[in-house]
Design goal:
The chain has about 150 residues and is α+β, with helices and mostly antiparallel strands. The protein has one domain: START domain (Alpha-D-Glucose-1,6-Bisphosphate, Chain A, domain 4). Helix content is about 20%, strand content about 35%. The chain has a seven-stranded antiparallel β-sheet with strand order 1-7-6-5-4-3-2.
Length: about 150
């Protein structure tokens, strides 16, 4: 039986090259609270959201204009019984051309409905991919979490 990994897909008018560049500009669509490299094979970065969530990712596959895969090396949630729920899961961005458009298929492999964080993570990833990443790709400006300690 196949697992029910979280997946969402967006289609945009921009080229695979533009999409690939936006995906790797993680601070532009996910969070400005990211430390480390986000664009090259074997880069490692850490994401923080207050005291609620911290995750360390490693880029384990980078195929320019085609695919990016992150391995979750370490994860901490303050709001789940299993604080490390994401650890060992993979986050994948597949880029394909479809009828003069570019499709991004986002899959968080291992994020399944049995996870305590699934509903929260489903909503969060849906927003980050379908709104913020899409906006970064199409307008050049995403809606990432702002840098902590900085007020507008």
């Amino acid at each position: 039986m196949a697992t029910a990994d979280f997946t969402t897909t967006i289609v945009v008018d921009q080229t695979p090259k533009e999409v690939f560049k936006a995906i790797n500009h993680v601070r532009g669509w996910w969070s400005e609270n990211i430390e480390g490299g986000t664009g090259k094979l074997n880069d490692v970065f850490t994401y923080r959201y207050g005291d609620d969530h911290q995750a360390t990712m490693k880029l384990i596959e980078v195929a320019p204009d085609k695919k990016v895969v992150w391995l979750v090396l370490d994860n901490y949630f303050s709001f789940t019984k299993d604080k490390t729920e994401w650890t060992g899961t993979k986050i994948e961005f597949e880029i394909t051309e479809k009828k003069n458009k570019t499709q991004v298929r986002f899959t968080h492999q291992g994020l399944v409905p049995d996870y305590e964080c699934y509903d929260i993570c489903f909503d969060a990833w849906s927003g980050y991919i379908n709104k913020s990443l899409r906006s970064l790709i199409t307008t050049g400006k995403g809606q990432p979490n702002p840098r902590e300690g900085v007020t507008a």
